[in-house]
Amino acid sequence: MSRALNVSVLIACAVAGAVVMASWQGIVIEDLKHFGTPRNSVIEGDTERTIPLPDGPAMRRSAVIVPETSGSFAFLFDDVSEGPVRYDPCRPVKWVLSPAGMPRGALPMLHNAADAVAAASGIDLVYEGTTNEPASFERELLQPQYGEGFAPVVVGWSTESQNPDLAGAVSGVGGSSAVNGAYGEQRYLRAGVMVLDSEDLRQLAVAPGGEARATAIIMHEWGHVLGLAHVQDPNELMNASSSTLTTWGPGDLAGLAIAGAGPCEDV
Ligand SMILES: [Zn+2]
């Protein structure tokens, strides 16, 4: 059995929460509604940037998923008082593809994995096309090339020699930043990153049954992007070294439903 078939994937790569501090830059009507509560901002490098207001109404884009299964799941960021840190389910979670190094035939796997995570979570994942931005956890959360809001989830490809995070049996890393909303203490996941090992997935995809397995690896990384952590149970796709599963396990489904049932940011 080749190493690729044994590919046990996946370390959780969660980006630390961004630094947040008060700011009064660019006062708008929402700021006046929150008079006395300073608008939050992030520091990126030497630059302080005001946290953007959410785009559109605070209404869910698709129904809350009611899981019919139970099992093991865990969250990467779990605030004591506010619960797990999740994406805002009232806004689309946009994702872009950084195609450099992508194995031939991988695009349908990416879309199938995104469809699987959207269906299980009730989060509206919207593909926005390709980008020249490399997939890196060093990225800035707010980038003018993507407009006013947070940068979309970036999905890209790398190799062990280019990215030490992919050393050994790790076939991908994924995660998002936990960032305060425009006001107050509630945190949301933002600007996720997924880096896939192009060599591992290229080898895996050409093996018998490998395409489904490679898709499952991408699903696992999406789980991290939506805030899920590893679990011990080998019957869950969020197990750190699952190597045979090709569909969500019962705990994965329960966890993803919760990941998609977070609070909407309402300013
Ligand atoms: Zn993992």
Chain-wise SSE layout:
Layout: E1 11-12, E2 20-23, H1 29-33, E3 39-44, E4 47-50, E5 78-79, E6 83-84, E7 93-98, H2 106-121, E8 125-130, E9 153-158, E10 172-180, E11 187-197, H3 198-206, H4 210-225, H5 250-259
Parallel strand pairs: 1-10, 7-8, 7-9, 9-11
Antiparallel strand pairs: 2-3, 3-4, 5-6, 10-11
The structure holds zinc ion (ZN).
Describe what you observe in this structure.
The protein has 267 residues and is of the alpha/beta class. It has a single domain, classed as Collagenase (Catalytic Domain), CATH 3.40.390.10. Helix content is 21%, strand content 22%. The protein contains five helices and eleven strands. Strands 1-10-11-9-7-8 form a six-stranded mixed β-sheet. A three-stranded antiparallel β-sheet has the order 2-3-4, with no helix packed on it. Strand 10 and strand 11 form a beta hairpin. The longest helix has 16 residues. The protein is globular, with a radius of gyration of 18 Å. The protein starts with 10 loop residues before the first strand and ends in an 8-residue tail after the last helix. The N terminus is likely disordered. Zinc ion binds next to strand 1 and helix 4.
